[in-house]
Amino acid sequence: MDRRGDSEALPSLTGMAPATIVDAHMHVGDFPLFKVRMDEETLARTLPHYGIEAAMVFHPDNRYVREVVQRVDGAYGLVWANPRVPGFLEEAVELLDHPRFRGVKMHPLLDGYHPNDPDIHPLIEELVARDLPVLVHCGHPIFTLPWSIEELAVSFPQAKIILGHMGHGNVVYINGSIDVAERNEHVYLETSGMPMHTKIAEAVERVGPNKVLFGSDAPFHEIGVEVRKVQVSGLDDAMVDRVLHRNSRLLFFGDEAASAPVAG
Ligand SMILES: [Zn+2]
Are 78 and 96 in contact (CB under 8 A)? Predict the structure, then answer.
């Protein structure tokens, strides 16, 4: 099947309970290795299709992300920060001045550095000063296990650190991620790609009502499947609502009822 033609049909939502969504984890760009893509045109159709009011999107090419978030309603950027790239800090600071950028994405596994590498520290200080979060890919050795990201959290007790995928597919790493978020008040969990629906409810019980965020990891995962995991996790309706959008509004926009960043 050719999935790369223009205006591909989006999946049917038959049987999916309606939901209001803020997506904390979405990729934009073309990913030939995975045979998927989320270009600007697809993103603009995808967000309203699923009821996504806001989405945090990213790609290693931050200039491309800036173009996309300026043109697509509801799209906000996280700055992809790779401390191995000369000038990354200056670029990140410049982009964080843009109102559509709401934090930073770190992928220490792909980019090959320890999450607590001193080269990343000036950027974390910048985020603390701006009260913006960092989303860190979490769930693969050697650089993205929860305990390595915890070293960054311990170095920066004021930083808001989100464990992307909350440990991903391995229950040892999932449990470890919940442990890290439980013992560090400023560490949050994001649900994308983590297959065990009941772990979402367990995470909320253990780490508190404001620290678990919905993420889809689209286009690598189907958004409806990721939403369904939260809806059937065992949480009551009010908590499902917190996970699907309120907690992200609070973290990225400064108010759990905000539909856009709160100034100041
Ligand atoms: Zn991802």
Answer: no
Check: pTM over 0.85? Answer yes or no.
yes
Q: What per-residue string of b and e applies to 194-224 under the rule 16 or more CB within 10 Å gives b?
A: beebebbbbbbeebeeebbbbbbbbbebebb
Cα 78 to ligand 1 centre (Å)? 12
Residue 4 belongs to a domain: no
Pairing, β 161-164 against β 134-137: parallel
Q: What is the count of structural domains for the chain?
A: 1
Q: What is the pLDDT along the chain (264 residues), one digit of tens a residue?
A: 444 445 678 988 877 777 899 999 999 999 999 999 999 999 999 999 999 999 999 999 999 999 999 999 999 999 999 999 999 999 999 999 999 999 999 999 999 999 999 999 999 999 999 999 999 999 999 999 999 999 999 999 999 999 999 999 999 999 999 999 999 999 999 999 999 999 999 999 999 999 999 999 999 999 999 999 999 999 999 999 999 999 999 999 999 999 999 975
Q: Which CATH number does the domain housing residue 170 bear? A: 3.20.20.140
Rounded distance from Cα 27 to ligand 1 centre (Å): 6
Compute the distance between CA of residue 6 and CA of residue 15 in angstroms, rounded to an integer. Answer: 26
For ligand 1, the distance from its centroid to the CA atom of residue 101, given in whole angstroms, is: 17
d(CA 61, CA 144): 21
Q: Provide the domain limits for residue 99.
A: 21-253
Give distance in angstroms: CA of 24 to centre of ligand 1.
10
Q: What's the CA dihedral at 150, 152, 158, 161 to 10 degrees?
A: -70
In a domain, 5, yes or no: no
Q: Is the peptide bond before 83 cis (omega within 30 degrees of 0)?
A: no
Ligand 1 centroid to residue 138 C-alpha, Å: 10
